[in-house]
Every structure is written in C-alpha cells, then in structure tokens.
Amino acid sequence: MPNREVLILGAGVAGPALAYWLARFNFHPVVVEKARGLRSSGNPVDVKGPAVQVAEKMRIMPQLQAAATGVTGTTLLDLAGRPMARLPMTSEKRRDVEISRADLATIVYEAAHDGAEFLFGDTVVDLTQDPAGVDVTFEQAAPRRFDLVIGSDGIHSTVRRLAFGPEQQYARDLGMYLATVPLPAEAIEFPHDMVVHNSPGRLLLVHPGRDQPMAMFVFRGTTDGYDRRDRVTQKRILADAYDGAGWRAPELVEAFREHPDPYFDRLNAIRIDGWSRGRVGLLGDSASSVAVFGDGSTLAVAGAHTLAEALHAHPEDHARAFRQYEATHRRLVNPKQRQIGPMASVLVPRTARGLTARNAAARALVGVTGKAFAPTIARTIEANP
Ligand SMILES: Cc1cc2nc3c(=O)[nH]c(=O)nc-3n(C[C@H](O)[C@H](O)[C@H](O)COP(=O)(O)OP(=O)(O)OC[C@H]3O[C@@H](n4cnc5c(N)ncnc54)[C@H](O)[C@@H]3O)c2cc1C
Predict the structure, then answer these.
(1) Burial class (CB in 10 A: 0-12, 13-18, 19+), 226
(2) Is 161 in the pocket of ligand 1 (CB under 6 A)?
(3) How confident is the model at residue 337 (pLDDT cuts 50, 70, 90)?
(4) What CATH number is given for 5-70+94-169+270-338 in this structure?
C-alpha cells in the first residue's frame, strides 16, 4: 500500500485520534511524543457535536462519559464576588462531554495503542522530504524514512517550524495571557459549577474538575518582559496583573506562585493558508489553534477523522487527500476562528463599561443555553466598548 508509513508527532488529542483511524484503514502509524508518558492532570476541554459523532464511531463515549467533569453550569460573580447569574453549560438533550484534556488524551490513546507504534520521550530535529518520502532525524531514536509526516504537536509545533517556517509567521497574538494551576480539593465552593469573576481586562475562574480542581487566569496585557521559558517573570506578570482584582485573587495568585510547574502562555491563534507542504501535514492546534475560545479539542478529534478518511480515499495521491481534508475541515475551523474576538470580549471584557454591559446581558439571559448566550452577549459588548 502506498503512503502506508505515517509519522505522527504529538500524542495529545489529535495525534492518537489520527493513529486510531489510520490503523483502521491499514496504514502503519508511528506516534512520537516528547513527554515521557501521558500526563495525569489537565485543563478541562470539550467533546462536542462532530467530535461526539467520531467518538461514537470509536466506541469511546462510555469512557468519556465516565470521566466527565460533571460540571453543569457557570456561576458568574459580580465585582464584589456575589453570584449574579447561573448559565447552564448545554442543553440536556445534547451528548457533549466536558472532560480533562489528560483524560481525553488517555482514552483516545488507549483506543489507538494496539494499532499504532507509540514512542515517548523523543522528538524530531530534522525533516528532509523528496518526491517519494520524508527522512526524519529524531533526538533519540535512529533516523527513519516515512511516506508522510503529520504534525499534531500543539500550538508551538516543531513540525510546523521545520516544514512551514517560524511560529511568528502563523501566530496571531490575541493580546492576552492564559495561566492555570491545580488547587486543593477544599478550594471548591460550587462542586458542579465553574465560578467566574471578572474585573476589567481580567478573568479568574475556579473549575471543580472531576477530582482535581483548578484555577484559570485569562488577562489582557502586552508582551513586555514576557519570556515563554522564564517562570520567575511569568509569576511576576501574573501577580502584577491581578493586584487589586478582588474576590479570591490573592489566594489564587499565591497558589500559582507556589506551584513548581504551573501553566502559563501567551494566547495566540494559529492561522495558516494551506495545512500541508508536500508530504508533511498539520492537524489540531498546530494547524488552527483557536486558543481557549472555540472548541480546540473538538476540532482536533473531528479533524483527525477527516484527515484519515481523506488519506484512505486517496492512498496513492497524498496531495489530493490533503486538499480534501482541508476543504472539509475548514468548514468547522473557519467559523470557530471568526468567533475568537467575540468570545474574548465575552470572557474578558476590556473596560468597566464592557463588563457592566456583559453582566447586564448575562442577568437578562439566565436560562438561555450557552450556545445562544455567547453571541448575544458579544453583540451587547460590541455596542458598549
Ligand atoms: C488552559 C487551557 C484551557 C483550554 N480549554 C479548552 C476548552 O475549554 N475547550 C476546548 O475545546 N479546548 C480547550 N483548550 C484547547 C485544547 O486543549 C486544545 O485545542 C487541544 O488539546 C488540541 O489538541 P492537539 O492534539 O492539537 O494538541 P495538544 O493537546 O496540545 O497536544 C500536543 C501534544 O504534542 C506534544 N508535543 C509538543 N511538541 C512536541 C514535539 N516537539 N515533539 C513531540 N511531541 C510534542 C505535546 O507534549 C502534547 O502531548 C484549552 C487549552 C488550554 C491550554
């Protein structure tokens, strides 16, 4: 079979999902992940609509449902920290699941691992392609030749850097930071709700998780002094941003400062014209990250299925397969990318006026499902910048 040997870089959500489907279609997927093993904790993500359909075909819905966070809504607090509106997450009729990213990655990995080769603790340092294949140099393993290489190695993708060019060409800075830190169980006030507190330009969120609560910080700020690898500066940037933010900010900032390895990143959206270069393709966040504003894990699962189907349909013509994948999957990705700006306004209103407008709209919309809620509030904020 032509194009049978496929290297997939990254065992997050998209990589193992692609490996599962490629193995079902008689390809030989090899997944290489830089971490030494699967991680045990993680931020909550969603498996929605098209990803639910894929998960059903993979027969993993029971496992996903069993691992779901159990969160049913969002409680919005006013500036003083008093509950002012509760927004149900989703209509009861839908089968969407909220789950930690680590649990989702583990469940997809378990479904995929019999059909694929998985190598942990390694990465790619060089890719050289010719018309017939791609020569890959690994950091640890011996060099190897593949028919195709897929980068599902996340927002700071190495495959993208090696085959498409530097990250700056494709990352759109959203003018915000994202940080998370695990919390002790006693930090939870509402076991079934995300609790959200805003002050202008800042969001603080406490998520109960399933058995691992966490705090999330999303805040607006410039890149001055920011270094992706400098923890000390990151902790200072976060502490300065939440100075005087009210509610539980001092306690949550302290939890972040004390943690040895909290998550902190600049928020970027990834936009690329063309998700393939020759025999190298991109999938998931590496191709089209929507940051935290638009169902990235759903896009990762759905995109993996679409890409595998396209390669299966055109096993001798990878260029045609990549075109089919992109034409189909962009129909899901493009609306989500257009939603980033409005979602950012809803979640982190920039000004006191915008926040007042958001909160007024939230109170008026109590009882409306999350889906209808976000665009309506976004329009209200846009009218009150
Ligand atoms: C704090 C936070 C909150 C989020 N909230 C939501 C949400 O509510 N809803 C939602 O749908 N999405 C959310 N997301 C986004 C979601 O997590 C991603 O869109 C999704 O995980 C993308 O899957 P992926 O497989 O493309 O990338 P990832 O899940 O990032 O996986 C990439 C994998 O590649 C590995 N890797 C990276 N570099 C290399 C390398 N050089 N070599 C080998 N392996 C490598 C990484 O270790 C990782 O395992 C959130 C993200 C964050 C950070």
Answers:
(1) middle
(2) no
(3) very high
(4) 3.50.50.60
Q: Residue 256: phi, psi to the nearest 5?
A: -65, -45
Measured in Å, residue 12 CA sits from the centre of ligand 1 at 6
Strands (E), 15-106: 28-33, 44-47, 73-77, 83-88, 97-100
Strand segments (E) across 63-154: 73-77, 83-88, 97-100, 117-120, 124-130, 133-138, 144-146, 148-151
Nearest atom within ligand 1 for CA of residue 11: 49
Cβ–ligand 1 contact at 359 (below 6 Å): no
Residue type, 73: G
Structure confidence by residue, pLDDT tens digits, 15-74: 999 999 999 999 999 999 999 998 766 789 999 999 999 999 999 999 999 999 999 888
Count of beta carbons in the 10 Å neighbourhood of residue 118: 18
Packing angle between helix 296-313 and helix 318-338, nearest 10 degrees?
160
CB 111 within 8 A of CB 60: yes
Q: How far does residue 105's CA lie from ligand 1's centre (Å)? A: 9
Domain range summary for the chain, segments of one domain joined by +: 5-70+94-169+270-338
User: By the 8 A CB rule, do 268 and 290 touch?
Assistant: no
Ligand 1 in reach of 103 Cβ (< 6 A):
no
CB 153 within 8 A of CB 164: no
Q: How much distance in Å is there from the Cα of 150 to the middle of ligand 1?
A: 15
Q: What is the pLDDT of residue 225?
A: 83
pLDDT band at 218 (very low <50, low <70, confident <90, very high): very high
State how beta strands 133-138 and 124-130 pair: antiparallel
- Per-residue pLDDT, 385: 47
Distance CA 286, CA 191 (A): 33
pTM of the model: 0.93
pLDDT of residue 22: 98
Question: What length does the chain have?
Answer: 385
